[in-house]
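pipeline: protein-struct stage 2 | run 1193 | FAD/FMN-containing dehydrogenase
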Amino acid sequence: MEYKKIDEADIDFLRNVCGEDQVVLRDNILDDFCHDEMPGQFSAPDVMVYVQDVSAVSLILKYANQKKIAVTPRGQGTGLVGGAIPLFGGILLNLSKMNRILELDENNFTLTVEPGVLIMDIYEYVEARGLYYPPNPGEKSASIGGNVSTNAGGMSAVKYGVTRDYVRGLEVVTAEGEILSLGGKIAKNSSGYSLVQLITGSEGTLAVVTKIILRLIPKPKFLQSLLIPFDNLPAAIKTVPEIFKSKIIPRSIEFMTQDMLSSSEQYLGRRFPDHSGNAYLLLAFDGNSLPEIEKESDQIAELCILHGAKDAFLIDTNERNDAVWKPRSSYLEIIKASTSEIDECDVVVPIDRVAEFVEFAQNLEKECGLRIRSMGHAGDGNLHIYALRDKLDQKLWKEKIDHLFDRLYSHASEIGGKVSGEHGIGSAKLPYQYQIEGKAVMQMMYRIKQAFDPNEILNPGKVVQYN
């Protein structure tokens, strides 16, 4: 696809729409806006525009579509798959200033926000009012628009689901500049195709999200955690299906390893509460009845010990809770600090194949000649396999990464897995998306893309690009 290069007439148009001080030319655009948190990919836009209302977004997209100028929507740029990088230059549509909380409707349990509102601000706002937004992605400085665009997951998905499960309605702008209102505050909707669900997770390739209606729930009154040590990681992960068979659904089920904890102690400067296991399950339980939570955690503790756990420790104070969860929530930063560069396989597999896949990934360390670290959501099958570059030169690093990812994604496909559990496809995972989904599925996705964006101006080079 050929896109028009930005010229002075285009700059004048953007200045007229947004104001001169909201338009940043290429030479003045900071490097931070030319990449996201995925290493190794960098591409600058021709111009960056801060938009502050839906009418500006509409005018810009209508103009860009007529002129065939590439447009890349961007929030905080915390993604990990190159989703907010302007691969074809053009206009970087910066939505970070559309950051207002518009309405809290306590009768309908909804919160209406603009896409630039930060996740951490949503939590603070609703929890102060006794309400709860359950999706719990690791990066709290991300914007809600980015979370909606990637269908972000997180550590609470076991019990509560992911972002898609909490998006009731959207205001979006199409590539042709038309403003659409989709869904609403309604709890049920069988009115034709679910465009809300389709656009959620589409990574800005189908439309630009300008308003979001989120579903809230009452904030659980009590929270407890269990820390359960095991002799090894396979033993820990193989216990997870047994937990589900008990019919008790914790809020979170995460796994950690001893090497992960050792790294966290050095990075965070504090000692982990236990060192009796080589691997751990970390579970959280929440609800409105403390006796009920205690009963559930006791049952799970007994079940884990029956299936080989060395012990089970109840975490029932804020200080202890922080001590055990901080290493898990900080692990990505810990890994980054330990090496020169990382790349990640964000794969999801059936829950009963998690242990198998983790063992498979660990065994690839010697085959691929890379240091590999794993963490993940044992309760929903979403695993994060990290490759560490250390001192490898760029050419060898690329060769080893390609081989590793080919092996990981091929095995994921063989056991019923998918390319991404929560980070999305972006540009980085496109080859593996084709590998797993196949030609027919990718053709169908491309037809959907064409229906929404026939000139392919919206975030080109991401999610689907049928060849």
